[in-house]
């Protein structure tokens, strides 16, 4: 991981964080005083910010195994990080670095590709299929599932390979991008903090 200064226009690297395993870094997230790096081998590297507050300490780097599949995506929520690994998600508490894992899809070959927060819930899209799922941020309970192919069937005659490629929450809408070039927007009302779609 190479760190460059954002204010300096020269392209000098100010910090080089070495990965001893050599596994590729797939995603990065910053929360509080920590930098999280999700690796291809299912490991999270956690770097703490240096006491001076400017850069991260390269050592000691904490290594946390979240699974045996690649860590595809991470989502920062208040004082936690959600890291997807295969068909499960690990919730890492930033203050204690304790981990809680839960399965989000019954098929072990399907992995979480995208996550986005909406109020008291997290919407997830997967590497295969056209369904998105909503999970509660505190209880981790599966609250809702929507098959977006039924919402877009009037736009395209071939829905056989419909796949979600992006998720965004903006101005009270859940925006769902697909591999077919279709963008679907769904209203996300807040009902007691849980943004179910009706």
UniProtKB/TrEMBL annotation:
Keywords, sorted A to Z: Guanine-nucleotide releasing factor, Phosphoprotein
Top-rank taxon, per record: Eukaryota
Residues in coiled coil: none
Span of the signal peptide: none
Name used for this protein in its record: Rho guanine nucleotide exchange factor 10-like protein isoform X2
InterPro entries in alphabetical order: ARHGEF10/ARHGEF17, WD40/YVTN_repeat-like_dom_sf, WD40_repeat_dom_sf
GO cellular component term, pick one: cytosol
Swiss-Prot/TrEMBL GO biological process terms: actin cytoskeleton organization; positive regulation of stress fiber assembly; SREBP signaling pathway
Keyword Phosphoprotein recorded: yes
An annotated Gene Ontology molecular function: guanyl-nucleotide exchange factor activity
């Amino acid at each position: 991981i190479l760190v460059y200064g954002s204010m300096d226009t020269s392209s000098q690297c100010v910090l080089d964080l070495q990965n001893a395993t050599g596994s590729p870094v797939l995603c990065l997230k910053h929360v509080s005083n920590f930098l999280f790096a999700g690796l291809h081998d299912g490991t999270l590297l956690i770097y703490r910010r240096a006491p001076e507050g400017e850069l991260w300490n390269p050592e000691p780097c904490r290594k946390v195994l979240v699974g045996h599949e690649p860590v595809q995506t991470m989502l920062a929520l208040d004082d936690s990080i959600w890291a997807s690994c295969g068909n499960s998600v690990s919730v890492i508490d930033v203050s204690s670095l304790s981990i809680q894992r839960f399965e989000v899809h019954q098929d072990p070959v399907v992995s979480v590709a995208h996550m986005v927060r909406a109020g008291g819930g997290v919407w997830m899209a997967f590497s295969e299929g056209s369904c998105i799922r909503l999970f509660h941020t505190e209880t981790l309970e599966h609250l809702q599932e929507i098959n977006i192919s039924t919402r877009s069937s009037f736009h395209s005659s071939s829905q056989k390979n419909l796949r979600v490629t992006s998720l965004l929450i903006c101005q009270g809408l859940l925006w769902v991008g697909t591999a077919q070039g279709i963008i679907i927007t769904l209203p996300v009302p807040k009902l007691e903090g849980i943004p179910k779609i009706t």
